Amino acid sequence: MQQPIDSQNLLTRAEELVDLAKKAGATDADAVIVRSRSRSVSVRLGKVEGVDASESDDFSLRVFIGSRVASVSANPGFDAQTLVERAVAMAKASPEDPFACLADDADLSKDHPDLGMLDLTEVSSAELTDAALEAEAAALAVPGVTNSAGSGASTSMGGLVLVTSRGFSGSYMATRFGRGVSVIAGEGTTMERDYEGDSRVRYADLDAAAELGRKAAERAVKKLNPRKADTGTGLTVIYDPRVARGLVSHIASAINGAAIVRKTSFLMDMMGKQILRKGLTVTDDPKIFRGSASRPFDGEGVSGEKLLMVEDGVLQTWFLATSQARELGLKTNGRGVRGGTSVSPSSSNMALEPGDISPEDMIKSVKSGFYVMEMIGHGANLVTGEYSRGAAGFWIENGELTYPVSEVTIAGNMKDMFLSMTPANDIDRTYSTASPTVMIENMTLAGR
C-alpha cells in the first residue's frame, strides 16, 4: 500500500506561516503546500530506457498589506520567520492592486466531500515495467508495425494543503495511474506514427496494456499510404473525440475570466449570447466522483459546484477566481487554481454534452468530407478566433471512411465553427476535458 501524505503535519506548518504573517503586520495571508510523489518507467524495443522517481514539497505564502500583495515560495528546510519577514517586506514595497484579495468568508467551503480521489494501491517498478513492455509487445505484434517510439507506465500521488487567515483550513489528496504507447508503421518515407494511452484515478480502472498497444498499432497501420485532399471550401469536417477535446479546450480558454479581464478573448462580448448551436450544453463539475480533475475546494478554499457554462447554446458565465471576479463585478464560482504563487481561473471536469446521433450515422450522413484523427500545430488564435491547423485523418466518401489523408490544413473562424457544431452521442468522461465526436460544417481545407 502507498502511504498517504501526512496532511495534518502540513496543515500545522501552513497555519504557522499564516499566524506569523498576521503577527508581522499582514492584513491577510494564505499558505499553500503542494506535495507530490511520482514514479515512472519507459521502455523501447523490449528494453528499459528509464526509471524515474521524484518527491517534492512546494511551500508558498501570499501576504496582503491592504491592497498590496506579495508571494514567496520555499523548499521544506526554510526558516518560517525569515520567509514571513521577506514576504511582508515585499508586499509593503509592491504597487497597489485593488482587485487582489482572499476569497470572501461567505464563499469558503464549510465541508470537504470525499470524492474518491485516493487509491492506495502500491504499484512496483517491476509492475510498471511489465505493463509498458506488454503494451509495446502487443503493438509490435500487429502486422505492418515496424518500430516503437516508446512505451511507459507511471504512478503518482499529490496533495494540496491550504490555510487562510479567513479561517479556512483544508487538504485533499489524489492519485493518478497511467500507461501509454507510441508505435510506427511502414518504412522509409512512408512511415506513420500513432499512439494510445490511459490515465485513471484508480489503478483497477486502467485499460489493459495489451489493448492499448493493439489500438495504437491498428491506428498507425490504417494511416499508411495517405493522400492529399483537394483544396476547397464548404467542407464538412468530423472530429474524432481525441481531437474534439481540443475544440472544447478552445472554448474553455475563450471563456476564462483571466482572458476576459485582459480583453484577449474573441468571446469577451458574448455573455448571454449564442456561441453554440441551440440545444447544446457545456458543463463543468469539480465534484464528479473520481473525476479526472475533481477537487473538494479550489485554490482559494471555495467550493465549486456544477455549472452550465453554456446552456441551449447561450454563454452563461466565465470561469472565475476571486480576483478576476472582483475586477468584472462578479462573484467567484470556485474555479481558482494555484499556479506557483498565483491563483488563476481554470476549468475542472468540463464536457461538451453529447447529442442524439451516433458517430456511425454522423459519418453516413456526409457525402464528401474529412474525418480528423490528428491535429498538428497550434494555429488557434484566441484573440481573433481565427483557426488554421494541420490535420490528418480519413476522407469520407458517400458516408464511408475511405483512404487516409495527411499534410492538409483545415481553417475557419471559431465563432462560426462553434455555431455549426453537432455533437454525437459517444462521450467518454474519463478525461478532464470531455467531448463526443463532433461535426462542423463549412470549413476550408488547403491541400493539393
Textual characterization of the structure:
The protein is of the alpha+beta class and 448 residues long. It has 3 domains: 7-219, PmbA/TldD fold (2-Layer Sandwich); 225-245 and 354-446, no CATH class; 247-352, no CATH class. Helices cover 22% and strands 37% of the residues. It has 9 helices and 19 strands. It has a 6-stranded antiparallel sheet with strand order 3-2-1-4-5-6. Strand 9 and strand 10 (314-315) form a beta hairpin. Helix 1 (7-23) crosses helix 2 (80-93) and helix 3 runs parallel beside helix 4. 42% of the residues are buried.
Brief characterization of the structure:
The protein is α+β, with helices and mostly antiparallel strands and 448 residues long. The chain has 9 helices and 19 strands. It folds into 3 domains: 213 residues, PmbA/TldD fold, CATH 3.30.2290.10; 114 residues, no CATH class; 106 residues, no CATH class.
